[in-house]
Design goal:
The chain is an alpha/beta fold. Helix content is about 30%, strand content about 30%. It has one domain: P-loop containing nucleotide triphosphate hydrolases (Rossmann fold, 3-Layer(aba) Sandwich). The strands form two sheets. Strands 6-7-8-3-9-10 form a six-stranded mixed sheet, sandwiched between helices. The protein is globular and about 55 Å long.
């Protein structure tokens, strides 16, 4: 019997966009899924398949046109923007394709700044150093973004996203700008975070080579889930 705990559940999610003088465009249709807690889940699909739209809905960055999303027994689709903002700040971390580090701050300062924004109440210095060591940047924490490679910048962005101890880390195409080897290193960091911090990681990718590293993989095409493994 499978007693695996689910952190997110969706039921019949749809996301439609109005089209002038025509039928609405459905970016997502009939999405019903469950995301296991403390695992690495991957949404895979070509550009335009709906994977980023789905991630934005699960991360409370957008609301579906129809359907219901439950985060740990709380229905988040009925919450207002202020309540969604609180959930994002406290319970979620985000890593995007463009790392968007603050260029005038060191790696350490970028991570520390995110702790201040989230209202983290622990020891800042201890947490920042731990997060940068977890992503393999213990020796690079006082470097500026322009002094780092693309992979190092993305790892700094991951440290920043997990610093406030979110339950869920959303990573949208985090390896798209990286070569295959560097991309695999980033995914390995996600696997370590799952094991060491108990974080649930949800990432999107169009890279077929990354599929086997996910604990659960949902394949999307034209706004629908066509395969689960």
């Amino acid at each position: 019997m499978d007693m695996e705990e689910m952190i997110i559940k969706t039921k019949d999610i749809e996301r439609a966009y109005p089209v002038p003088d025509g039928e609405p465009f459905y970016a997502l249709k009939n999405i019903t899924l469950e995301i296991p807690k403390g695992k690495l889940t991957i949404f895979r699909g070509k550009s335009g398949s709906g994977k980023t739209t789905l991630m934005n809905l699960l991360g409370a960055l957008d609301q579906p046109t129809a359907g219901e999303i439950t985060l740990q027994d709380q229905v988040i689709t009925s919450l207002d923007e202020e309540a969604c903002g609180r959930i994002r700040r406290k319970q979620m971390g985000f890593v995007f394709q463009s790392v968007a580090l603050i260029p005038i701050m060191t790696a350490y300062e970028n991570v520390e700044y995110s702790l201040r924004l989230s209202g983290y109440d622990g020891d800042f210095e201890e947490r920042v150093k731990k997060c940068l060591k977890m992503v393999g940047l213990g020796a690079r924490m006082h470097h500026m973004p322009q002094e780092m490679s693309g992979g190092e910048q993305q790892r700094t962005a991951i440290a920043r996203a997990i610093a406030h101890k979110p339950q869920i880390l959303f990573a949208d195409e985090p390896t798209a700008e990286l070569d295959t080897n560097t991309g695999l290193q980033v995914v390995k960091i996600f696997k370590n975070l799952v094991e060491q911090e108990g974080v649930t990681v949800i990432m999107t990718t169009h890279d077929v080579g990354l599929m086997e590293v996910g604990d659960k993989v949902f394949e999307l095409e034209d706004g629908e889930i066509i395969n689960v493994q």
